Amino acid sequence: MANFNIKVNGKVRQVEADPATPILWVLRDHLDLPGTKYGCGVAQCGACTVHLNGNAVRSCQLPVSAVANQEITTIEGLSAKGDHPVQKAWLEHDVAQCGYCQAGQIMSAVSLLKNKPKPTDEDINAFMSGNICRCGTYTRIKAAILDAAKS
Amino acid sequence: MENIKKSINRRSFLKASALAGGGLLLNFSWLASAKAAYTIGNNLNAEPTWTEITGYIKITPDNIIKILNPNPEFGQNVMTSLPMMVAEELEADWQKIEVEMGPHDNVKLGPQFTGGSNSVRMYWKPLREAGATARQMLMEAAAQTWKVPIEEVTTKGGILFHQKSGKTGTYGSFASKAAALPIPKEVKLKEPQHFNVVRSARKNVEGLKIVTGKPLFGLDYKQEGMLIAMIVHPPAFGMKLKSFDAAETLKMPGIKAIFSQKLYEDGFEQGGFDTRTFNDMLVVVGKTTWEVMQARKKLNVQWEPAGDTKDTFGGRGQKREVTVPGELESTDAMFKKMQEYAAKPAQQLRKDGDPETAFKNAAQIIERTYNAPFLAHNCMEPMNFFAHVTEEKALVAGPLQAPGWSEPTLAKLLNLPGDKIEIQMTRMGGGFGRRAYGHYLYEAALISKKVNAPVKLVYTREDDMTYGIYRPMYTATYRAALDANKNLIGFHVKGGGIPEHAIHANRFPAGAVDNYLAEGWQIPSNITIGAFRAPRSNFNAAAEQSFLDELAEAMGKDPIDFRLALLKRAKENPVGKDNDYNADRYAGILTLVKEKSGWGKPENKKYNRGVAAYFCHNSYAAHVVDMVMKDGQPYVERVFSAVDCGIVVNPDAAKNMVEGAVVDGIGNAFYGGLTHKNGKPEQSNFHQYRMIRMNETPKKIEVHFVQNDIDPTGLGEPPFPPVFGAVANALFKSTGKRFYNQPFAPDLNKKEGKQI
């Protein structure tokens, strides 16, 4: 066990945890930020996607000991009122079915658009194929990303 | 407690009462059967004859209208569509309505069962009646206050109007008065042409919470002092716990307790949905999820073969024992065993005409066998449940499709009366049938009782995928007898599976062929199975619809025209009895998909097209799948879907459901499969169990609904099964080969000699 100061959604938080603890579980169990989801624990499904210095990472593979002095953003910190253009596009397209994977999908999509503001179909396929949606909402996810890219 | 006894000549009873602080609360109770006197009182829970359905509406004096959604939400959007049905008849302003998930209360809120594509169907009438009754009472209250005839009172958007006098008032301002009025005996429901909430697209009421990551799901549920528990289950079906040594593990940080416990004691009478795979729970309890995950890896555990075991089932006054074989099964051996069973005589399920003679006299017999593997549900949110059990009561909360089925078992396991058990249903991160089986709820409750603390039981993805309760392993052999003119004179299906067969003997093409035989057989197994999106249909539609495609080809007919001709026969001169489909509606979706897909049109020649249609869960669905080759692999680029599920309550959400079913179907058809070696599942996470992803998803899925005014039927399941058949038929057009074994990707692999 060790103490860590980590920066989440703009705030420095102190956490006492095993250094190997993935940020996923630090967020969920220690910091009461359950928006980041557990899906597989092996970086295969993308449900746990957060931003590390603005880039999408799988938080189930990122130990707490490796993120000192870096900015972590979770779905809870993406916007104050759920009005990030990507969130708005998600609502406009009524993307979600069960909704469990959507936080991870949104965090991936935001990161994609940061790197490619006008993504092609293939860009979206390449970047978003790390996120599984068991309900199969992929066509709406793609449409929402393309819409968000216009704003 | 007020008791009123009367003979029942009406189906419904409403209870109106004032809310604390003023306002109206309407309970709607609906009787399943009118066979006995009933009791009206303050404690409706005490009356066991209230079995079917209720809904309730709350209106406050400042006109806040709250509708409780009765059915658990697992992505089928009932949190939105069911309240829409209430709001339609209530004439409330949808934008201002608050929706809340109801508590588990089968007396007030009806069956509360999510499954079988039944939610909208079973609540369609009662919830509209609930809305209409509340509106009628509010109108009566306004009419009395304004001293005008009720016929002159109108409503719109939660406001009451009297046009002549110019008087208006909110529902809220009349709610208390309305609550004191007698309940109207009958209310008139709107004709479909007057719907203005139902049939217009309404956004998911939890959309904002979903996109902002609010704690909606079972895994997000938290309470002060809550511990995390995990269960280490045997590595293989047919194994059980022999011994364990937890001395070192107990010293690990955060670990509170390690113990083994039985889920059901010997002879415990299970209900029909109390399926469990492993009865010995080896439980690790600790402070945080990560600590428990680490600790369980360090446990020193010995497992041993369980041998044959016995399950006892109760219910309906009939106790029966079932022997579960102890064999450590492997997929190859199971497949061989299925072939052996397929050659043996089987149980006759339906026979029309003289199929033996038809086959004897046939000029040509076509026979094909189709196979499909176990499938894991793989809900994105792994199984989990919260429980806090004390001597006096139990609170359990989590993702659950059928709370009413779980409560009696939980009561027996905890030795608590039903009214001391509170079940809260969280939003589910997928269900697909998996969460109709309450074992994980019982496990959580027993663990909480043992450690005397609030506990959340968490399955890891590996626990979830290797626990069982899969879609069964199926096979079916189809045979068709053709005469010298290539007319279909006989049809024979013989299906089997581990541990059940999939045959629906009264479904199409039964009723369309003079000589028809359906047979089934099954092999018992310790690999547990359960409902998986469109149970049995999800295999039948693949096999039967592929076979019909091959038949059409052999007969030189267009696959849609061939099916339409059979349906015409089934309509005009049906063979046999009990055909469970409507031939007109079945033909309707084929006609619609033919038109919308531009079937046979030259501009679509570049696509390898496959078609399939199926009836299940009271609805009809057809797809045309357009396949192309992309990077040397077959890729479904476009899909046209036609669905007849009667009135479509929430059209855009309904489209979403069909789109999802198409994607799910393509994914499972190509990649889905769980295999075993010596009882051990060979896939435990998504690096081994392939799921469809964005890059394999069609560019376009065009969904069309048949427009009619038939009461709504199912939608979550019906569009799923025919996708498998349409994909198989498109694959034939793409590769020139028929695909008989699911999943299809490995066979493509063999053909092309490379990894997929």
Automatic annotation (TrEMBL), chain A:
<dbReference type="InterPro" id="IPR006058">
    <property type="entry name" value="2Fe2S_fd_BS"/>
</dbReference>
<dbReference type="InterPro" id="IPR002888">
    <property type="entry name" value="2Fe-2S-bd"/>
</dbReference>
<keyword id="KW-0408">Iron</keyword>
<keyword id="KW-0411">Iron-sulfur</keyword>
<feature type="domain" description="2Fe-2S ferredoxin-type">
    <location>
        <begin position="2"/>
        <end position="78"/>
    </location>
</feature>
<dbReference type="InterPro" id="IPR036884">
    <property type="entry name" value="2Fe-2S-bd_dom_sf"/>
</dbReference>
<dbReference type="GO" id="GO:0051537">
    <property type="term" value="F:2 iron, 2 sulfur cluster binding"/>
</dbReference>
<dbReference type="InterPro" id="IPR051452">
    <property type="entry name" value="Diverse_Oxidoreductases"/>
</dbReference>
<dbReference type="InterPro" id="IPR001041">
    <property type="entry name" value="2Fe-2S_ferredoxin-type"/>
</dbReference>
<dbReference type="InterPro" id="IPR036010">
    <property type="entry name" value="2Fe-2S_ferredoxin-like_sf"/>
</dbReference>
<protein>
    <submittedName>
        <fullName>Isoquinoline 1-oxidoreductase subunit alpha</fullName>
    </submittedName>
</protein>
<keyword id="KW-0560">Oxidoreductase</keyword>
<dbReference type="GO" id="GO:0016491">
    <property type="term" value="F:oxidoreductase activity"/>
</dbReference>
<keyword id="KW-0001">2Fe-2S</keyword>
<dbReference type="Pfam" id="PF01799">
    <property type="entry name" value="Fer2_2"/>
</dbReference>
<dbReference type="GO" id="GO:0046872">
    <property type="term" value="F:metal ion binding"/>
</dbReference>
<keyword id="KW-0479">Metal-binding</keyword>
<dbReference type="Pfam" id="PF00111">
    <property type="entry name" value="Fer2"/>
</dbReference>
<dbReference type="InterPro" id="IPR012675">
    <property type="entry name" value="Beta-grasp_dom_sf"/>
</dbReference>
From TrEMBL, chain B:
<dbReference type="InterPro" id="IPR012368">
    <property type="entry name" value="OxRdtase_Mopterin-bd_su_IorB"/>
</dbReference>
<dbReference type="InterPro" id="IPR052516">
    <property type="entry name" value="N-heterocyclic_Hydroxylase"/>
</dbReference>
<dbReference type="InterPro" id="IPR046867">
    <property type="entry name" value="AldOxase/xan_DH_MoCoBD2"/>
</dbReference>
<dbReference type="InterPro" id="IPR006311">
    <property type="entry name" value="TAT_signal"/>
</dbReference>
<feature type="signal peptide">
    <location>
        <begin position="1"/>
        <end position="34"/>
    </location>
</feature>
<dbReference type="Pfam" id="PF20256">
    <property type="entry name" value="MoCoBD_2"/>
</dbReference>
<dbReference type="InterPro" id="IPR000674">
    <property type="entry name" value="Ald_Oxase/Xan_DH_a/b"/>
</dbReference>
<dbReference type="Pfam" id="PF02738">
    <property type="entry name" value="MoCoBD_1"/>
</dbReference>
<dbReference type="InterPro" id="IPR008274">
    <property type="entry name" value="AldOxase/xan_DH_MoCoBD1"/>
</dbReference>
<feature type="domain" description="Aldehyde oxidase/xanthine dehydrogenase a/b hammerhead">
    <location>
        <begin position="212"/>
        <end position="307"/>
    </location>
</feature>
<dbReference type="GO" id="GO:0016491">
    <property type="term" value="F:oxidoreductase activity"/>
</dbReference>
<protein>
    <submittedName>
        <fullName>Isoquinoline 1-oxidoreductase subunit beta</fullName>
    </submittedName>
</protein>
<dbReference type="InterPro" id="IPR037165">
    <property type="entry name" value="AldOxase/xan_DH_Mopterin-bd_sf"/>
</dbReference>
<keyword id="KW-0732">Signal</keyword>
<dbReference type="InterPro" id="IPR019546">
    <property type="entry name" value="TAT_signal_bac_arc"/>
</dbReference>
